[in-house]
């Protein structure tokens, strides 16, 4: 949990300034909304929070932020795209780019999508060549083994997407 209520507006401005994007009022507001959300937001969710923003401006802002790597797009089972801020604060407190090596949790009841940022780095260790020590295989390596044993030796995995599906805490509570 964050100790101080973060100033998402300033954080958004800061991130935009250090990106390749031009800083516009719309981008700041959209990014600040994504940064402040606990779960990923659809176009409609963002629109509901920024009611006075023109729909096209909102779409463009989301696309721009996604292209610049400040936000990322997650496709839902309901064919709705949801967006989450791509740069998040680490536990250590300094801004840290979170690329796509993170997982998602999708609630099958309310369709909310949460980013799992603290997926153990070992799970997705990209260093396939290091044979140091006798550490157990990372999940990536295990999946590579499964891939080759089922489909053939020639297959190589480059990326693994982790999505956990289930009920979010709120829905689990309601289901009781
Ligand atoms: Zn995510
Ligand atoms: Zn839910």
TrEMBL record:
Source species, domain of life: Bacteria
Alphabetized InterPro entries for the sequence: FUR (IPR002481), Fur_C (IPR043135), WH-like_DNA-bd_sf (IPR036388), WH_DNA-bd_sf (IPR036390)
Biological process annotations from GO: negative regulation of DNA-templated transcription; regulation of secondary metabolite biosynthetic process
Family affiliation: Belongs to the Fur family.
GO molecular function: DNA-binding transcription factor activity; transcription cis-regulatory region binding; zinc ion binding
Cofactor-binding details, from the entry: Binds 1 zinc ion per subunit.
Keywords on record: DNA-binding, Metal-binding, Repressor, Transcription, Transcription regulation, Zinc
Binding site for Zn(2+): 107, 110
Protein's recorded name: Ferric uptake regulation protein
Cofactor (UniProt): Zn(2+)
Keyword Transcription regulation: yes
């Amino acid at each position: 949990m964050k100790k101080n209520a973060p100033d998402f507006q300033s954080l958004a401005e800061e991130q935009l300034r250090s990106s390749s994007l031009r800083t516009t009022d719309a981008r700041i507001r959209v990014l600040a909304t994504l940064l402040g959300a606990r779960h990923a937001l659809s176009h409609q969710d963002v629109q509901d929070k920024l009611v006075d923003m023109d729909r096209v401006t909102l779409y463009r802002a989301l696309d721009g932020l996604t292209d610049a790597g400040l936000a990322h797009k997650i496709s839902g089972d309901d064919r709705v795209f949801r967006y989450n801020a791509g740069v998040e604060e680490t536990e250590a407190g300094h801004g840290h780019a979170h690329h796509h090596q993170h997982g998602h949790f999708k609630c099958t009841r309310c369709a909310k999508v949460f980013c799992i940022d603290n997926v153990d780095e070992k799970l997705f260790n990209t260093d396939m060549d290091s044979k140091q020590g006798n550490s157990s295989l990372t999940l990536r390596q295990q999946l590579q083994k499964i891939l080759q044993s089922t489909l053939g030796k020639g297959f190589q995995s480059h990326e693994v997407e982790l999505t956990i599906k289930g009920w979010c805490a709120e829905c689990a509570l309601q289901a009781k």
